[in-house]
Write a structure and sequence with these properties.
It comes from Photobacterium aquae. The protein is mainly β. Helices cover 5% and strands 51% of the residues. Strands 1, 2, 4, 7, 8, 10, 11, 12, 13, 14, 15, 16 and 17 form a 13-stranded antiparallel β-sheet that branches. The two termini are 39 Å apart.
Length: 230
């Protein structure tokens, strides 16, 4: 951070006239369920990989800053920042990136509460007191992104290898990014009797396998779900 006392004092004096900031909090979030791989796709995976992965995906607006911004008063780390609201038609984004990096600030400056892009296409900082505390040049883009929501419910089938004609599959359920112990199960299927795997409504046709990998086709996903292909 560029910390010359004269520059910081000049910047502090400049923003004193801007008044209190306003953000209308709330954002449009599209929530869908995803199921991977798609039905009828032929897929090969290795031991420990997901054979079937089903859960929730969210689509919303993000500001992605491509370079670290080392500014007078504020530093903006590179990363993606989720939309938190709007004001006068402009989107405002969280000061904390999706990987946990925060906009840092000098002790002489107000703490940041949001980031936005001004009409001059600069990255601007909003604080509780100032709508525009400071603005900087930077490389960025604003776009809608679809991401898997680790805070939601998720179901998976995992390949655990084979012993002779028998293959081992693990079923896992996750909630808030944590496996649900009561809904974790290891299942064994005898391929000499049938090459089909059926579990919780999912149906998989096994084409080939050994102790390191499996080739298969998904015929049905887990039951009671709406799917999209990501």
């Amino acid at each position: 951070m560029k910390k010359t006392l004269v520059s910081l004092l000049a910047l502090s004096s400049a923003v004193l006239v801007t008044g209190c900031s306003t953000i209308n909090y709330g954002t449009d979030v599209k929530v869908d369920y995803f199921s991977e791989p798609a039905i009828d796709d032929v897929v090969s995976v290795y031991v420990g990989d997901y054979m079937l992965n089903q859960g929730q995906a969210t689509t919303m607006e993000y500001l992605t800053v491509a370079n670290n911004i080392d500014g007078i008063g504020y530093d903006v780390p590179r990363g993606s920042y989720a939309r938190v609201g709007e004001y006068q038609g402009n989107s405002y984004f969280s000061p904390i990136s999706t990987n946990g990096a925060r906009v840092s600030f000098s002790p002489l400056m107000d703490p940041p509460i949001a980031i936005h892009i001004n009409n001059e296409k600069k990255v601007c900082i909003t604080t509780p007191t100032y709508q525009v505390a400071s603005c900087y040049d930077g490389k960025f883009k604003v776009e809608n992104r679809t991401v898997t929501d680790s805070q939601s419910f998720q179901q998976t089938l995992i390949y655990n290898g084979s012993v002779g004609k028998k293959i081992n599959i693990s079923y896992r359920e996750f909630s808030n990014g944590t496996a649900r112990g009561a809904f974790t199960n290891d299942v064994e299927y005898d391929m000499s009797k049938s090459n089909l795997i059926n579990y919780k409504g999912a149906k998989i046709e096994v084409i080939d396998y050994d102790n390191t990998s499996i080739k298969f086709k998904v015929m049905k996903h887990f039951k009671n779900n709406t799917t999209i292909n990501l």
